[in-house]
Design goal:
about 230 residues, about 65% helix, disordered C terminus, mainly alpha
Amino acid sequence: MTRVADAPSEPRTVGRDPWPWVGFVSALAFLTLAMLVARNGGLSFDGPLATAVKSLPIPVGVWEAITALGGVILIPISIVFVLAALTTRRFRLALVVAFVLLGATLFTDIVKDQIARPRPVDPLVEAAGYSFPSGHSLNSAATYGLIALVVWRSELPLVVRRIAVILGVTLPFLIGLSRIALGVHYPSDVIGGWLAGIAFVALAATLIRMTGAMARDLPGRVGGSSLSDP
């Protein structure tokens, strides 16, 4: 039988962990952008960036398919993510994932209501609610980014881990562009969503390291393989 071990324990030295700093810088940049949007409304780069994205030779149907990857599909993806952590006896990881992803969703709604920025006029598809930040951008960055983080810290083959990281970066980027191309968000909405999403991934990374959540909470046998903690 194949012996499968958990990911080796990571160094506990916070000073060597870049994630707290990534989270701090991302959160500060988001706060600055949110204050500018609340005070000024439209920002100077919104128009040129929106024009550039909309001029890309990509059919509307493709943008709609991409934007769907950042919509309600994130709910079942998040549920499966949490269940996967539970079934591999990583209960602390499941709690961190659920806490961060639910927090990201609530944060999006709260900030939208506080900023109350109207959406762009004449969108290509319907979209309800306020504009800042882009919920698709924020929640896709948090969800896909967190999946990439966990896979990267796992014992899966290196090629799988690299693919996960590439997808974790590429999908939120394309989803954000799709929101601009479809005319339902300003570029600053999308940038704000990305920044906040990165901050939530950084929070999760810090919590996972602090709690040792990549290790299994209970030893046992899963799928016929012998499991052991580090």
